């Protein structure tokens, strides 16, 4: 008997049949035959006794035990037998999909996997050496050909199996055929290829993992628009009336009317409305209305830029569902949240899932509504990592809602816009962008809030006051202290950590510390949460405090200051900071001062983080609108800024990645695999701060868990402890990390600031003590 997996034994052909069934359900009906070919072929190479010996632990035969390459060739052979035509995209996709189904996507067209010439394979080529291994695998399988043929006879493939394993040149023929098709693709590239490939690949790996984990696919659930709208009205009745309620209602209603009018006129929409006007409700219900109008099985994917704001948006949507008892029993069939710190729990009353099973359902986005991050969404749309791509198929039949789309790095605007347009053209998906500051790069959307400029002009909560004469930190602090009013609260937002530390220290030396707070990623997350909570409570009590911070306060923070001071930054970042001022639209206009601080060498702190082009564009746009810019003119300010950015920003990175998509270049160093929303700051290292006794316990626990023999148990426990440890970790320059203990934990080195040295190297208020002349260019 040939098995695909153990614990318990899973018969190989049963696994193949399950994968076909699941992948066809995940994928595209028009590609149903291709899903079947891939599903039945993907583990064909497990019919060797080499693989079976390794599976049962009898012997590891090295490369002879591998099954991906042989299975990939078999898949193409089947396609040639059944559907052979002039199409060069499908056989390439079949080969690549099966080749990489147990890892990240490989550069399938390289000489490691295909011959240099489509006419013949030279013995000295890498592929020539691989063919020798394939021949050994063939000879092994021929010894039990009757068993394999009997299995495939169930689907009418017995003659194909016999031909593939008995024709002496079948491997060489398929490899040369593939090289010919790849060469054709290079000359006649098809821009649909990447999107077809990723749908096939995602459907396979999601189905493969579900079958291997013994999980029956779940049927997600959704509540009607009417029931959710009724709950929304009940929730709003319980809130205290606010000054913006009328505007929020008008925006909500107008978007609802518009989406009903234009839902069948396109697939790419936008909602441009001011900060604080209820975009969470407006956007979510626009997606729900669209879901209702379209019919069918569309999921809603709600993506946000920061993990810090996911919990609150998730809770808003969860509260809309709580009146229904079935939601309480089966929460995750309706709604789930997914980011790198999510709990691996999946609530479904019909099943009690193991940790690894729950994690798989979450990572597959098996729910009616998914609340997630830009990282999870965009690195699924654009990428080659197996773990990310197993949910790609979900996007093909989803309504994708992106909140604060301007938070995408500007160098990727044209790339993301390209992918959005291609996906909406090829798939049954819809995209809704939400922002107060829509970049001009996304200019082909159908706007759902007509005359949105009107709503910007109705708001007078804040005004910007640019003071763009260069000043040092010392000069700024002297001016601030001189004009400080004890009857007002202040938020000062710096661009770099060292800048923020210097501001804090200088103000503390002159005003004392009683009402002064500090917040940045120089402090461990555990303390940041406590500080933020105390700041929020004191502000709500009407106390007049000063908070010195970095960009950590720009989103997902419920604070309301009388005056905000922002060191110059991109305009969208400045407007985000303005949202921390006069949030409830009080009678007086909140003042947001924009200053231009420089270091001792005269270089702008903002340029160190964002680059000189973006800071110059922001400064030029601010200066062009006068000494005071009311909120009613923020829309004009944003347009001016993005027009200047469009003229200056380099699109080289986007162009390179678009070309990689068009050519299906899956290389991790120069192709699609280079895309990342998270900067690869190689000069930074994680430092674990043993701040309290709980931190010390975690270090002991992780050492104990590494001794656990069971792979799944060890992995699950390491993840649980790892999430708790993140509360004590800060990312610091390597120069600061290496002066502390380097402890080898498993295969990784963790730098530890132990409890005995915390007092010397870590300040309880401002965090890690660092050199005065070093600027940490992150926040």
Topology, element by element:
Layout: E1 3-5, E2 10-11, H1 12-26, H2 32-41, H3 49-55, H4 68-83, H5 89-99, H6 126-142, H7 145-153, H8 158-166, H9 170-187, H10 193-212, H11 225-237, H12 245-262, E3 268-272, H13 279-294, E4 299-304, H14 310-321, H15 325-329, H16 331-334, E5 335-338, H17 355-363, E6 369-373, H18 374-381, H19 386-389, H20 392-395, E7 398-403, H21 413-426, E8 430-435, E9 446-447, H22 452-457, E10 462-472, H23 473-483, E11 490-493, H24 497-511, E12 516-519, H25 525-540, E13 546-549, E14 563-567, H26 571-578, E15 590-598, H27 605-610, H28 612-624, E16 629-630, H29 634-648, H30 652-662, E17 684-689, H31 693-705, H32 711-725, E18 729-733, H33 734-737, E19 741-745, E20 748-753, H34 755-761, E21 762-763, E22 767-768
Helix pairs in contact: 1-2, 1-10, 2-4, 2-5, 2-10, 4-5, 5-9, 5-10, 7-8, 12-13, 21-30, 23-24, 28-29, 31-32
In short:
The chain has 779 residues and is of the alpha/beta class. A hairpin with a 3-residue loop joins β21 (762-763) and β22. α2 runs antiparallel to α4 (68-83).
């Amino acid at each position: 008997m040939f098995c695909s997996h153990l614990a318990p034994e899973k018969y190989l052909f049963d696994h193949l049949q399950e994968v076909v069934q699941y992948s066809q359900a995940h994928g595209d009906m028009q590609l149903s035959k291709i899903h079947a070919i891939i599903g039945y072929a993907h583990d064909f190479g497990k019919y060797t006794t080499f693989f079976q010996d390794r599976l049962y632990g009898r012997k590891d035969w090295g490369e002879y035990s591998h099954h991906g390459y042989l299975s990939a060739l078999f898949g193409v052979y089947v396609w040639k037998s059944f559907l052979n035509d002039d199409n060069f995209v499908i056989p390439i996709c079949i080969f690549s999909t099966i080749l990489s189904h147990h890892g990240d996507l490989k550069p399938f067209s390289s000489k490691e996997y295909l011959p240099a010439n489509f006419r013949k394979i030279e013995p000295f080529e890498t592929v020539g050496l691989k063919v020798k291994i394939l021949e050994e695998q063939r000879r092994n399988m021929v010894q039990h050909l009757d068993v394999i043929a009997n299995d495939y006879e169930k689907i009418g493939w017995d003659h194909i199996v016999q031909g593939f394993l008995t024709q002496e040149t079948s491997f060489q023929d398929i490899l040369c055929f593939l090289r010919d098709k790849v060469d054709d693709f290079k000359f006649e590239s098809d821009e649909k290829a990447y999107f077809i490939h990723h749908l096939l690949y995602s459907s396979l790996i999601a189905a493969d993992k579900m079958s291997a984990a013994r999980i029956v696919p779940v049927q997600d659930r959704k509540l009607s628009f009417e029931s959710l709208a009724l709950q929304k009205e009940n929730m709003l009745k319980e809130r205290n009336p606010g000054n913006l309620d009328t505007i929020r209602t008008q925006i909500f209603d107008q978007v609802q009317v518009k989406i009903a009018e234009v839902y069948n006129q396109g697939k790419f929409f936008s909602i441009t409305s001011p900060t604080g006007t209820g975009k969470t409700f407006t956007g979510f219900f626009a997606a729900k209305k669209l879901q209702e109008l379209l019919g069918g099985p569309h999921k809603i994917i709600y993506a946000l830029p920061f993990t810090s704001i996911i919990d609150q948006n998730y809770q808003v949507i969860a509260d809309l569902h709580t009146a229904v008892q079935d939601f309480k029993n089966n929460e995750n069939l309706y709604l789930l949240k997914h980011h790198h710190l999510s709990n691996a729990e999946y609530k479904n009353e019909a099943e009690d899932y193991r940790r690894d099973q729950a994690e798989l359902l979450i990572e597959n986005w098996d729910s009616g509504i998914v609340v997630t991050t830009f990282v999870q969404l965009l690195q699924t749309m654009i990428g080659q990592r197996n773990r990310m791509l197993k949910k790609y198929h979900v996007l093909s039949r989803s309504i994708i809602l992106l909140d604060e789309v301007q938070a995408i790095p500007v160098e990727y605007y044209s790339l993301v816009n390209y992918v959005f347009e291609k996906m909406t053209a090829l798939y049954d998906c819809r995209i809704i962008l939400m922002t107060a500051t829509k970049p001009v790069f996304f200019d082909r959307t159908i706007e759902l809030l007509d005359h949105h400029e009107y709503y910007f002009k109705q708001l007078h909560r804040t005004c910007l006051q640019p003071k763009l004469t260069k000043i040092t930190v010392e000069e700024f602090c002297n001016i601030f202290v001189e004009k400080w009013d004890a009857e007002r609260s202040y938020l000062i937002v710096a661009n770099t950590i060292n800048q923020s530390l210097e501001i804090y220290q200088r103000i503390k030396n002159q005003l004392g510390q009683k009402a002064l707070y500090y917040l940045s990623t120089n402090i461990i997350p555990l303390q940041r949460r406590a500080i933020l909570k105390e700041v929020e409570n004191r502000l709500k009590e009407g106390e007049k405090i000063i908070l010195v911070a970095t960009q950590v306060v720009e989103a997902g923070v419920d604070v309301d200051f009388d005056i905000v001071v922002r060191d110059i930054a991109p305009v969208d970042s400045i407007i985000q900071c303005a949202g921390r001022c006069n949030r409830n639209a009080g009678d007086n206009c909140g003042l947001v001062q924009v200053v231009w601080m420089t270091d001792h060498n005269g270089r702008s702190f903002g340029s160190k983080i964002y680059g000189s082009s973006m800071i110059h564009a922001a400064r030029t746009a601010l200066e062009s609108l006068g000494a005071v810019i009311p909120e009613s003119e923020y829309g004009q300010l944003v347009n001016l800024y993005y027009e200047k950015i469009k003229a200056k920003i380099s699109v080289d990175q986007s162009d390179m990645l678009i070309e990689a998509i068009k050519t299906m270049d899956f290389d991790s160093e120069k192709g699609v695999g280079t895309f990342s929303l998270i900067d690869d700051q190689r000069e930074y290292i994680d430092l674990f701060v043993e701040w309290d006794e709980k931190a010390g316990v975690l270090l002991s626990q992780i050492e104990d868990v590494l001794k656990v023999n069971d792979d799944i148990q060890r992995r699950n426990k390491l993840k649980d402890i790892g999430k708790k440890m993140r509360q004590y970790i800060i990312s610091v320059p390597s120069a600061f990390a290496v002066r502390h203990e380097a402890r080898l934990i498993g295969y990784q080195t963790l730098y530890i600031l132990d409890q005995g040295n915390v007092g010397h190297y870590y300040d309880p208020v401002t965090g890690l003590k660092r050199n005065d002349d070093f600027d940490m260019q992150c926040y």
